[in-house]
Amino acid sequence: MNFDLSEEQVMLGRSVAAYLxxxxxxxxxxxxxxAARRALWQGIAADLGLLSVMVPEGLGGMGGGxxxxxxxxxxxxxxxxxxxxxxxxxxAGTLFKTADATQALESVGTGKMIVALAHTExxxxxxARKVGTxxxxxxxxxxKIMVAGAPLATHFxxxxxxxxxQTFSLFLLSADTTGITRSDFTMIDGQPASELxxxxxxxxxxTRLGAIGAGADLHLHAADMATIAHTAEAVGMxxxxxxxxxxxxxxxxxxxxxxxxxxxxxxxMADMVLYLEDARSLLYMALLTDPxxxxxxxxxxxxxxxxxxxxxxxxxxxxxxxxxxMGITSELMVGHFFKRAMTVNENYGGPGxxxxxxxxxxx
Length: 363
Fold this sequence. Notes:
The protein is an alpha+beta fold. The chain has 11 helices and 10 strands. The strands form 2 sheets. Strands 1, 2, 3, 4, 5, 6, 7 and 8 form an 8-stranded mixed beta sheet that branches. The protein has a two-stranded antiparallel ribbon with strand order 9-10. InterPro entries: Acyl-CoA_Oxase/DH_mid-dom, Acyl-CoA_Oxase/DH_mid-dom_sf, AcylCo_DH-like_C, AcylCo_DH/oxidase_C, AcylCoA_DH/ox_N, AcylCoA_DH/ox_N_sf, AcylCoA_DH/oxidase_NM_dom_sf. Its cofactor is FAD.
């Protein structure tokens, strides 16, 4: 089977890499804050039109699919850049397509819309089909925690119960809607995030995505697509970690010879490469599985997530250990990759949740 990218996809990856080499670096990542992330978003939207990668051509987009999104996400992972890409272009883009939210999809493509998912609540289990946030008499009230990217976002996708439904609905709300209060903080990987409080926020049919009570199924499908993109990001991260670590142990001398001359460290590096290639293979399998075959697609995505999370954890930990104590510091990019790995692995439920879904798919 041929896994080679098309000429257009190779060019897309090179364009993203060249842009990031010029416009993103460790200083912007560490010290640029929200302003640097917003500037990168606006630049990539204006100069590359990257946010339209999955938007249909009829709506002014590139008309690409998940393989194109994989190419972009993998390059972003190599540079630890644009952490709002997957939530907006892939998660929200998939959701808007499924819910036939054409205007919102167009806004994603132009880069005018940055989306943050407001779904997690205190004590909420991954995969929950009910939430505590409620809609009564057209007023949405509740609290959402760990809303990654909220300080950057122009819009929130919010889960809420309405009309005694057994599952939640999803609403698309502008970030400046009356009744929304943000408490901002920084996540372990430096990504801006917020706790959101909703007090009698006006909602209706015009803000609902899909049918009443359809949010759980819409969310699960979009989250699976986003998980594929995050796995591509993880593959890019592991590639950079392996390359950086190999360069370090080759240049560092101990007992009169480079560290790379020691067989034990060679074995560690070999193990890192094996974990990376396992994750890459499972990523390709998920991309080649038809989402219409619900059972097979769920098995492919959940199995990929479990193994890719294990691989990313192993590779990032080994990279830190092979760099020594300095590997965890902010002065080296290795430490930033290690912290980002912790947040990427927990997106949309974490490996424990996906392991349970994989086991259930085998019944």
